[in-house]
């Protein structure tokens, strides 16, 4: 394996006021783990994005202390014991930032990702998997088919976009020519950029079958991404 392994862990932690916080942790262990730090993503319906980011940062700080030794179990124990302090600290910092700059937009962390897939052999299963990942990671956008062209256009929090990419590259999402489950190796990241103010943003994630190039372009126009379409899609037709 050249990508390492990825796995999810869900833990329930007693936080402030004795309420339970469900933490969804995703660890990607590279092949040379534990000599190399794992990639960590944190999600929770009970915490804000900023708090999830702070939890991730604190976990990475702890991970550095355990470099070159197995650490996942220790990291989970640590966050179970320290979550309430991390959240308290995060809330204080957040309040200070709000006081300093109420005009700051959360759009700073919202990104657009455009992917090109070479093929889908197990199309129904593949589509279902992409829809589930988009839903779990609160990403909006389109999975678009036109002839042999397959595009995935996603918008959402940058950390969730990165987590999606990890899943896309490390999970067995398709089958090979012999029908055996396999990872996606024929994928290209065409563009990864911050959402600009003129972009309208997608409200949902949808699968679209387009019969013409005009239909495909209209999907990009929905979110004010005509320039993105013009730059990256026509070259795929050559």
* Structural class estimated from helices and strands: alpha+beta
Oligomer: single chain
Average pLDDT confidence is 81
How many strand elements? 10
Alpha carbon gap, first and last residue = 33 Å
The CATH class label of the largest domain is: Alpha Beta
Radius of gyration: 20 Å
As a percent range, the share of strand residues is 25-35%
CATH architecture of the largest domain: 2-Layer Sandwich
Instruction: Give helix % range.
Output: 25-40%
**If strands are numbered along the chain, what order do they take across the biggest sheet?**
9-4-6-5-10
- Shape descriptor: globular
Number of domains: 2
Tally the helices: 6
- Which parts are unreliable, with pLDDT below 50 for 5 consecutive residues or more? 93-108
CATH topology of the largest domain, what is it called?
A: Alpha-Beta Plaits
Largest sheet: 5 strands, mixed
Order of helices and strands: EEEHHEHEEHEEEEHH
Domain RWD: 1-86
InterPro entries: Prp3_C, RWD_dom, RWDD3, UBQ-conjugating_enzyme/RWD
Protein name: RWD domain-containing protein 3
Keywords: Cytoplasm, Nucleus
Describe this structure in words.
By secondary structure, this protein is an alpha+beta fold. The chain folds into two domains: 5-91, Ubiquitin Conjugating Enzyme; 111-236, Alpha-Beta Plaits, CATH 3.30.70.100. The strands form three sheets. The protein has a five-stranded mixed β-sheet, with helices on both faces. A three-stranded antiparallel β-sheet has the order 1-2-3, sandwiched between helices. It has six helices and ten strands, in the order E-E-E-H-H-E-H-E-E-H-E-E-E-E-H-H. Helix 1 packs across helix 2 and helix 5 packs across helix 6. It has helices at 49-65, 72-100, 123-136, 158-170, 213-221, 226-232; strands at residues 5-14, 20-29, 39-43, 110-117, 140-146, 149-157, 172-175, 181-183, 187-194, 205-209. Strand 7 (172-175) and strand 8 form a beta hairpin. Residues 1-86 form the RWD domain. Pfam families: Prp3_C, RWD. It is found in: Cytoplasm; Nucleus.
């Amino acid at each position: 394996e050249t990508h390492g392994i990825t796995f999810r862990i869900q833990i329930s932690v007693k936080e402030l006021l004795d309420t339970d916080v469900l933490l969804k942790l995703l660890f990607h262990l590279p092949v040379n783990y534990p000599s190399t730090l794992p990639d960590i993503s944190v999600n929770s319906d009970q915490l804000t994005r900023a708090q999830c980011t702070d939890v991730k940062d604190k976990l990475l700080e702890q991970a550095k202390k355990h470099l070159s030794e197995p650490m996942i179990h220790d990291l989970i124990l640590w966050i179970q014991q320290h979550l309430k302090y991390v959240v308290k600290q995060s809330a204080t910092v957040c309040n200070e930032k709000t006081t300093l700059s109420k005009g700051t937009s959360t759009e700073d962390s919202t990104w657009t990702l455009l992917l090109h897939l070479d093929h889908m052999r197990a199309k129904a299963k593949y589509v279902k998997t992409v829809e589930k990942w988009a839903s779990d990671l609160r990403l909006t956008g389109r999975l678009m088919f036109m002839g042999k062209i397959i595009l995935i256009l996603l918008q959402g929090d940058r950390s969730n976009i990165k987590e999606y990419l990890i899943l896309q590259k490390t999970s067995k999402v398709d089958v090979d020519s012999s029908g055996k489950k396999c990872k996606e190796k024929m994928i290209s990241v065409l563009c990864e950029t911050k959402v600009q103010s003129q972009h309208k943003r997608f409200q949902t994630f949808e699968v679209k079958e387009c019969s013409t190039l005009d239909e495909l372009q209209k999907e990009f126009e929905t979110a004010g991404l005509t320039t993105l379409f013009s730059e990256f899609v026509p070259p795929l037709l050559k």
